[in-house]
Design brief:
Protein name: Probable membrane transporter protein
Family: Belongs to the 4-toluene sulfonate uptake permease (TSUP) (TC 2.A.102) family.
Number of strands: 0
Organism: Marivirga arenosa
InterPro entries: TM_pro_TauE-like, TSUP/Inactive_protease-like
Order of helices and strands: HHHHHHHHHH
Largest sheet: none
Subcellular location: Cell membrane; Membrane
Length: about 270
Amino acid sequence: MDFYFLLFLAGLIGGLISGLLGVGGGIVYILILPIAFNYIGIPDQEIAQFTIANSLFGTFFAALFSTSNHIKHGEFYPKQILPISIFSIIAGLLSLFFIVNTPFYSREVFNVVVIFLLGGMLFSTLFNAKKQNQFKERNSSNYSLLSLTGLSAGLAASLTGLGGGVIIIPFLNQGFKMGVKKAKAISLGVITITSLAMVVFNLFQQPMQEIQISHTGYILFQVAGPLIVGTLITARIGVKWSRKMKATTVSYLFAAFIILVIVKKILELI
């Protein structure tokens, strides 16, 4: 009972962060899921694969619930969301097939990738945090930059389970000089589409080792379920809170959670 309650709490926090910061709930899920999989006996050699797959599963619902709230308020931007999503799906699926779901991608490699990726995002976020209120969106869309954003986000999502928001928001914020709140809404829309594609892919994958626990591909519904229930409760609350916060506050909160994940992953490597 305690095990599932902790997963439910992680879902509550993940859903809140998803709506508040626009990064999906993965930044919380990748902290709790390795612990959960160790507890239920998933082989250490496939902790990374199961963590990424189930984090993306929870992230899909976190982003979906948050995006539905944005749509109700007219904060949906298909001209940016669709091209980013297309390239993100391509990069994400190729990465899952050729890199992640292979013996090479160990738990240690996974942690190192997360640390380096989030380290770069942390520097970028803190460097630009004080400038958020001065950003003005450009009128034209740079489709080359949108495609690069999508490719980078899909690669990051598939390698870390974070959903891609840690790439999308800084790219749009700095590349397009777009306000962080609009970038957040676009990020959630992209995450909804691309995480769904990667979840479906993982449902039909065969784990490299025999798993005694009931599973469908790399998805464990008994683990992801409590996360999703918690997410359902808080995702829309996070969106509402984000409308009341200053853009700089959102940026600093984003940075705080990045630091938390980096510290946890460093401790796992030591």
